[in-house]
Amino acid sequence: MSVLIRAISAYVPPIRISNEELASRIDTTDEWIRSHTGIGARHIAPDGVQTSDMAVSAAKSALEKAKISIHEIDYIIVATATPDYFGFPATACIVQDKLGAYGASAFDVTAGCTGFIYALNIASSMLETSHGRNALVIGAEGLSRITDWNDRSTAVLFGDGAGAAVLSRIDETGRGCLSFILGADGSGAKDLYLVQPERAKAFERQPPLVPVISMNGKKVYDFAVKSITVVIERLLHKTAYRLEDFAWIIPHQANARIVQAAAKRFSIPMDKIFLNIEEYANTSAASIPLALSEMDEKGLLKPNDLIMLVGFGAGLTYGAAVIRW
Ligand code: ACO
């Protein structure tokens, strides 16, 4: 028995903001953004489009590709740092309602940019150990809503989008989700966090304020390079695969320089690493499924290819997965 990614698809909102356009609003340049991050543009959701809307668009297209009905979905897991409602209800429940997936249980996963890998691990374990047959695993983000557009150190980094995977339990063995490593270092929680509106005092009404991203870029950069290196070493040790066995490594798309530094450490040729950060910037939990979807569309993923997903993010969290496509 295996748990296979049966189909993958994505939704990217239509509004595209180039570096030049951003540079006309805040004190930055295309040259700085490209040389420090590899980012050339980002897409942002129009007003009124919620994280759940993007998740639903990606999910519908993934279900079509998988050729299965929404009624066959047993679990819906949404990885997001930008839920429709902070706190509750879960965005996955809103997605369930919009899709009409009334037979499915639904919940969110909060693990920053590692969220998609965490959600994949949870879904594949649930499918392996329960009667469920199919799951929808979605990474979806509306980061433009929590970005401080006056803070040039973070405003240039993020974008919106969603990616959805249909997972199915199959009788065949040796394919699908083969191995996971997840980790966290909560001592770095304040290196990347959402500045909260002050908590309401008892019996007093609190005016709603918008939470915004606060990031210690240097600390997150160092954590990212270190955690990618450690998690790849641990995964190779755990699975006994060698780097040469992998057709592709698909990292979380946070900063091309982070990926290049990790690649140099392992002497991994950059043409084995898929990057699409130039067009979409950092879409947090959506970035890995967005990358997988683009690779799938371009025919870069062949059946039986061994691939590695690697992520890191707020928490601080990190994780990796080995998948035989
Ligand atoms: N345009 C122009 N100049 C800028 C900009 C900008 N957008 N942002 C910062 N600068 C300036 C700074 O003010 C500083 O100027 P100074 O030397 O006069 O003080 C200079 O550029 C260098 O700033 P640094 O912060 O040292 O730049 P650095 O090379 O470290 O790059 C960056 C910053 C890109 C943010 C990097 O630290 C990084 O990528 N960190 C990781 C971020 C990340 O991956 N976050 C997401 C994690 S995943 C998740 O869960 C969401």
Automatic annotation (TrEMBL):
One of its GO terms (biological process) is fatty acid biosynthetic process. Residues 236-325 form the Beta-ketoacyl-[acyl-carrier-protein] synthase III C-terminal domain. The keyword Cell membrane does not apply. Its main location: cytoplasm. GO terms for molecular function: 3-oxoacyl-[acyl-carrier-protein] synthase activity; beta-ketoacyl-acyl-carrier-protein synthase III activity. It catalyses: malonyl-[ACP] + acetyl-CoA + H(+) = 3-oxobutanoyl-[ACP] + CO2 + CoA. Gene3D superfamilies: 3.40.47.10. Its EC number is 2.3.1.180. GO terms for cellular component: cytoplasm. Residues 107-186 form the Beta-ketoacyl-[acyl-carrier-protein] synthase III N-terminal domain. It comes from the Bacteria. It is an enzyme of class 2 (transferase). Pathway: Lipid metabolism; fatty acid biosynthesis. Pfam families: ACP_syn_III (PF08545), ACP_syn_III_C (PF08541). InterPro entries: ACP_syn_III_C (IPR013747), ACP_syn_III_N (IPR013751), FabH (IPR004655), Thiolase-like (IPR016039). Residues 253-257 are annotated as: ACP-binding. Keywords: Acyltransferase, Cytoplasm, Fatty acid biosynthesis, Fatty acid metabolism, Lipid biosynthesis, Lipid metabolism, Multifunctional enzyme, Transferase. The active site is at residues 113, 252, 282. It is found in: Cytoplasm. Catalyzes the condensation reaction of fatty acid synthesis by the addition to an acyl acceptor of two carbons from malonyl-ACP. Catalyzes the first condensation reaction which initiates fatty acid synthesis and may therefore play a role in governing the total rate of fatty acid production. Possesses both acetoacetyl-ACP synthase and acetyl transacylase activities. Its substrate specificity determines the biosynthesis of branched-chain and/or straight-chain of fatty acids. Homodimer. The last Arg residue of the ACP-binding site is essential for the weak association between ACP/AcpP and FabH. NCBIfam families: fabH, PRK09352.1. Belongs to the thiolase-like superfamily. FabH family. This is Beta-ketoacyl-[acyl-carrier-protein] synthase III. It comes from uncultured spirochete. The gene is fabH.
